[in-house]
Amino acid sequence: MADIERLTITLSADMAVLIKDAVEEGGYVSSSEVIREALRDWKMKRELQQQKFSALKAEIAQGMADAAKGRTAAFSKKRIAERGRNLSAHRSSV
Protein backbone atom coordinates (compact mmCIF):
# COMPACT_ATOMS: atom_id res chain seq x y z
CA MET A 1 0.00 0.00 0.00
CA ALA A 2 1.14 3.56 -0.63
CA ASP A 3 2.45 5.78 2.14
CA ILE A 4 -0.17 6.19 4.83
CA GLU A 5 -0.82 9.31 6.85
CA ARG A 6 -3.10 9.28 9.87
CA LEU A 7 -5.55 12.17 10.07
CA THR A 8 -8.04 13.14 12.71
CA ILE A 9 -11.34 14.46 11.38
CA THR A 10 -14.44 15.87 12.99
CA LEU A 11 -17.85 14.88 11.65
CA SER A 12 -21.41 15.69 12.54
CA ALA A 13 -23.20 13.00 14.53
CA ASP A 14 -25.38 12.02 11.55
CA MET A 15 -22.34 11.55 9.31
CA ALA A 16 -20.60 9.46 11.96
CA VAL A 17 -23.71 7.25 12.24
CA LEU A 18 -23.74 6.75 8.46
CA ILE A 19 -20.15 5.57 8.54
CA LYS A 20 -20.64 3.29 11.53
CA ASP A 21 -23.80 1.81 9.97
CA ALA A 22 -21.96 1.08 6.72
CA VAL A 23 -19.32 -0.86 8.66
CA GLU A 24 -21.85 -2.67 10.87
CA GLU A 25 -23.87 -3.73 7.81
CA GLY A 26 -20.77 -5.49 6.51
CA GLY A 27 -20.20 -3.37 3.44
CA TYR A 28 -16.87 -2.14 4.76
CA VAL A 29 -14.20 -3.51 7.08
CA SER A 30 -13.50 -0.18 8.77
CA SER A 31 -14.51 3.45 9.01
CA SER A 32 -11.32 4.33 7.16
CA GLU A 33 -12.44 2.22 4.22
CA VAL A 34 -15.74 4.14 4.05
CA ILE A 35 -13.91 7.46 4.11
CA ARG A 36 -11.41 6.34 1.45
CA GLU A 37 -14.23 5.34 -0.90
CA ALA A 38 -16.04 8.62 -0.27
CA LEU A 39 -12.85 10.53 -1.06
CA ARG A 40 -12.30 8.56 -4.27
CA ASP A 41 -15.86 9.42 -5.35
CA TRP A 42 -15.31 13.08 -4.41
CA LYS A 43 -12.04 13.16 -6.38
CA MET A 44 -13.74 11.70 -9.46
CA LYS A 45 -16.59 14.22 -9.16
CA ARG A 46 -14.11 17.11 -8.92
CA GLU A 47 -12.21 15.84 -11.97
CA LEU A 48 -15.45 15.63 -13.99
CA GLN A 49 -16.43 19.14 -12.90
CA GLN A 50 -12.98 20.40 -13.93
CA GLN A 51 -13.33 18.73 -17.34
CA LYS A 52 -16.76 20.31 -17.84
CA PHE A 53 -15.38 23.70 -16.78
CA SER A 54 -12.47 23.38 -19.21
CA ALA A 55 -14.83 22.42 -22.03
CA LEU A 56 -17.06 25.40 -21.24
CA LYS A 57 -14.05 27.75 -21.25
CA ALA A 58 -13.04 26.36 -24.65
CA GLU A 59 -16.56 26.90 -26.01
CA ILE A 60 -16.60 30.47 -24.71
CA ALA A 61 -13.19 31.14 -26.28
CA GLN A 62 -14.43 29.71 -29.60
CA GLY A 63 -17.57 31.86 -29.42
CA MET A 64 -15.53 34.98 -28.70
CA ALA A 65 -13.18 34.18 -31.61
CA ASP A 66 -16.16 33.62 -33.91
CA ALA A 67 -17.73 36.92 -32.83
CA ALA A 68 -14.44 38.77 -33.35
CA LYS A 69 -14.29 37.42 -36.91
CA GLY A 70 -17.90 38.37 -37.58
CA ARG A 71 -19.20 34.80 -37.58
CA THR A 72 -22.47 35.50 -35.83
CA ALA A 73 -26.16 34.72 -36.34
CA ALA A 74 -29.11 37.00 -35.83
CA PHE A 75 -30.64 36.79 -32.36
CA SER A 76 -33.67 34.50 -32.29
CA LYS A 77 -35.44 33.88 -28.99
CA LYS A 78 -37.34 30.99 -30.58
CA ARG A 79 -34.15 29.29 -31.82
CA ILE A 80 -32.46 29.69 -28.44
CA ALA A 81 -35.49 28.29 -26.57
CA GLU A 82 -35.66 25.31 -28.95
CA ARG A 83 -31.96 24.60 -28.47
CA GLY A 84 -32.43 24.75 -24.71
CA ARG A 85 -35.32 22.28 -24.88
CA ASN A 86 -33.25 19.92 -27.03
CA LEU A 87 -30.29 20.08 -24.65
CA SER A 88 -32.56 19.52 -21.65
CA ALA A 89 -34.23 16.54 -23.32
CA HIS A 90 -30.82 15.06 -24.18
CA ARG A 91 -29.59 15.44 -20.59
CA SER A 92 -32.78 13.83 -19.25
CA SER A 93 -32.31 10.78 -21.45
CA VAL A 94 -28.66 10.24 -20.48
Structure description:
- By secondary structure, this protein is mostly helical.
- The chain has one domain (13-93).
- Helix content is 71%, strand content 0%.
- The chain is elongated, with a radius of gyration of 23 Å.
Which class do the helix and strand fractions yield?
mainly alpha
Q: Largest sheet, described in full? A: none
Report the mean per-residue pLDDT as an integer.
Answer: 93
Any idea how many domains? 1
Q: Can you give the helix content as a percent range?
A: over 70%
Relative strand content: under 5%
Q: Give a count of the beta strands, DSSP E runs of length 2 or more.
A: 0
User: H/E series, N to C?
Assistant: HHH
| Envelope shape | elongated
Using only CA atoms, what is the Rg?
Answer: 23 Å
What low-confidence regions span 5 or more consecutive residues with pLDDT below 50? none
> How many helices does DSSP assign?
3
N→C terminal distance = 37 Å
Summarize the structure in short.
This protein has 94 residues and is an all-alpha fold. The chain has helices at 13-24, 31-68, 77-93.
Any descriptors?
94 residues, mainly alpha, 71% helix, ParD, Ribbon-helix-helix protein, CopG family, toxin-antitoxin system, ParD_sf
List the helices and strands and how they pair.
Blueprint (H helix, E strand, L loop, with lengths): L12 H12 L6 H38 L8 H17 L1
